[in-house]
Amino acid sequence: MQHLAFLLAGSADTLIGGFIGFFSSFVIMLITRWLDRKGKLRIYAKRTVVDNKKRWGFHEDGGQSLLVVPLKLEFQNTTGRSRVVRNVDVVPYRNGKEVAKTVQIEYTEKKRAAGEKVTEVTTSEYGEEDAHNSYSFTLPPNSIVHKKCLFCLKHENVPDFDELRLDYFDERDRRISLHIDEIAGDWKPRVFEPDLDWVLLKKR
Predict the structure, then answer these.
(1) Hey, how many other C-beta atoms are within 10 angstroms of the C-beta on 202?
(2) Cα separations (Å) of 100 from 28, 30, 39, 156?
């Protein structure tokens, strides 16, 4: 009987010890996940120029107006996990409703010619090698990532608009819409000064 009692007591101790170990591991896992999710993804933007010359705004192209928005983006991921921003786009809105989507430009070429012969071709890359025809990026944990992007939109039956937003999809495939600026989008040719400071983009 004493031997049986000893075995039962040992089994109980083992069971309790195993339960405590499992519970501790579970709590540690929950805390780790909570810490990984703690923090935020912030996006800052700065409207710049194309090839150090062309300012952002409405330009004439082939007899029609063209919206050109060169944008530098700074992604601040202060969470402990990787974040995804997919299909980043500048989108014109009117009265809170989307009116069109811009085209995401991968690169531009500037050619210098002598007579009919091209003597030099200068290429400016946008979005870098991980863009793959759309501006989609993976942001490492606790990181700051900079990207240079270029967005264009031809008038072509696009109505006037009053706001520009930065839209993207996150890692859960949720659409996020952030306010860039209010603008008189009447398609009249005019350009604007580049931003001097970074602007934190927020929802409206």
Answers:
(1) 10
(2) 47, 43, 33, 10
- Phi, psi (degrees; rounded to nearest 5) at 11: -65, -40
- Cα–Cα distance list, 4 to 10, 12, 201 (Å): 10, 12, 70
Kindly calculate the radius of gyration of the chain based on its CA atoms and give it in whole angstroms.
27
Q: What percent of the chain has pLDDT over 70?
A: 68
Q: Between these two residues, 30 and 64, which has the higher pLDDT value?
A: 64
* Domain coordinates in residue numbering, the chain: 1-38, 40-200
Residues of 106-138 as b/e, b for ≥16 C-beta within 10 angstroms? eebeeeeeeeeeeeeeeeeebbeeebeeebbbe
Question: d(Cα 202, Cα 180) in Å, to the nearest integer?
Answer: 8
Q: Is CATH 2.60.40 the right assignment for the domain spanning 40-200?
A: yes
**Residue 79 identity (one-letter amino acid):** T
In 3D space, the residue among 79, 76, 81, 101 whose CA is nearest the CA of residue 166 turns out to be 101
Q: Which of 149, 183, 193, 188 is nearest to 168 (CA)?
A: 149
Q: What is the pLDDT of residue 30?
A: 44
Handedness of CA 47, 53, 57, 63 (dihedral sign): negative
> Residue 154 has which token pair?
């031809």
Q: Two tokens at 134? A: 């759309």
Position 79 scores a pLDDT of 94
